[in-house]
Amino acid sequence: MKQLKLTTLALAALAAAGAQAQTPSSINIYGILDVGVVAIDGAGDKTRRFVSSGSQVGSRLGVRGTEEISPGWKAMFTIEHQLYADTGSQNQQTPVSGFAIPSRALVGIPNTIRSQLEPALGQSLADSLNNRFWHRQAWVGLVTPGGAVLAGRQYSPAFATFGRFDPHLAGNVGNALATLTVPTGIEVRIDNSVQYVAELGGFRLNAMVGAGEGQVGAAKFWGISAGYASGPFDVQIAHQRRKTSEGLDSLENTVLGASYQWGSFKFTGMYLTAKDKHPTLGAQLRAQLNANTAIPAALKPAFLAYGTQIANNLGFDGKLVYGGVHYQINDRNKLVVSYGDYSDKVAEREAAIGGIALEHSLSKRTSIWLSGGYVDNKTGQQILPYAQGLLYGFTDKPGRDSSAYSLNLVHRF
């Protein structure tokens, strides 16, 4: 049997290298520092310019280890911290639009109730920017001759598929992931999860379950993916589902991705569906409102109903078509071009984004990235370009287009 690999994400499959033959166990420290200058249009009348971290790859510090137990058996772990190298904080900066929320969230909400619900929504957004220390990953696993079993905080099967076929590898301000934010349209990492991973002869399989224990809003999760790679061709499909803490069906994703390498060109594409029947945000808002003693008991039912409506206004019921091309110009320079279009049953959620990035490698570990993105917010969206793990916020008007440009220095160690 060929050696098993962990294919949860291109950047997450860090432990697959294993220990050296003469060393039964190993521990490695690794990381990425990504800092650059960003310019954003669409958040007001003026261009916003600032120093930012993670707009291309995402700064991080991690520790991974392996231990050879016996032939075919290995223990391994990964813990990975997300940081923002522009300030040294583990929490991302306040979005350029502050803690304002998209206008479509409050459609149909009476002004008397809106004034009391808006602060709760703003606080929910602020809370979402606060990361735990090992935010990116924290898991331990056992590799056996029949597959690997991993437990902890891990990338979901659908996002692993997204990252594998994303032209920008889930980074860059031109990434179409911008169409699936606030609340999230695809679950990225799953807490309290157990995952089975196997790869053999070009075929690969991931299956995950998450308990959802101790979380407000989110509850049980399951997901599965299967793929095959042969020569220049690679294809994978994934499906996952979440329930709310109230037992209702919540976010559901299906992702189909493929890529083909042709000389200096690599073509990638994917089709993604996002359907959220009962957003976990609704359960979170209802929990906040139930605990709010300032709301008279007689008004609680109305507040709870409008909290549900807000969550549904922000939800998803659509599909993303996303593709791009990598062109390896020479040994030191690579060009990436992409385009993604998200359509939804609710027109105000629809948007399209084009992205471009140029990488110039200074060395094996250090590179300079110049990237850009332009968002067509169509009839009522308010998306600003989104960087990896970094929310820049929303446009000041529904339907206003936006753009961003970033120049980054990225060092890997």
Descriptive labels:
4 helices; mainly beta; 17 strands; about 425 residues
Describe the structure.
- The two termini are 32 Å apart.
- The chain is built from 4 helices and 17 strands.
- The chain has a domain at 38-57 and 96-122 and 155-188 and 212-412: Beta Barrel (Porin).
- A hairpin with a 7-residue loop joins strand 8 (203-210) and strand 9 (218-230).
- The chain has a 16-stranded antiparallel β-barrel.
- The chain has 413 residues and is mostly beta strands.
- The relative contact order is 0.18.
- Helices cover 13% and strands 46% of the residues.
- Helix 3 packs antiparallel against helix 4.
- The model is unreliable at 1-22 (pLDDT under 50).
CATH topology of the domain at 38-57 and 96-122 and 155-188 and 212-412: Porin
The helix count comes to 4
CATH class of the domain at 38-57 and 96-122 and 155-188 and 212-412: Mainly Beta
| Secondary-structure element string | EEEEHEEHEEEEEEHHEEEEE
Which residues sit in consecutive blocks of at least 5 with pLDDT less than 50?
Answer: 1-22
Rg to the nearest angstrom?
A: 21 Å
Cα shape:
globular
Mind telling me which CATH architecture of the domain at 38-57 and 96-122 and 155-188 and 212-412 this is? Answer: Beta Barrel
Please give a quick description of this structure:
The protein is mainly beta and 413 residues long. The chain has 4 helices and 17 strands. The chain has a domain at 38-57 and 96-122 and 155-188 and 212-412: Porin (Beta Barrel), CATH 2.40.160.
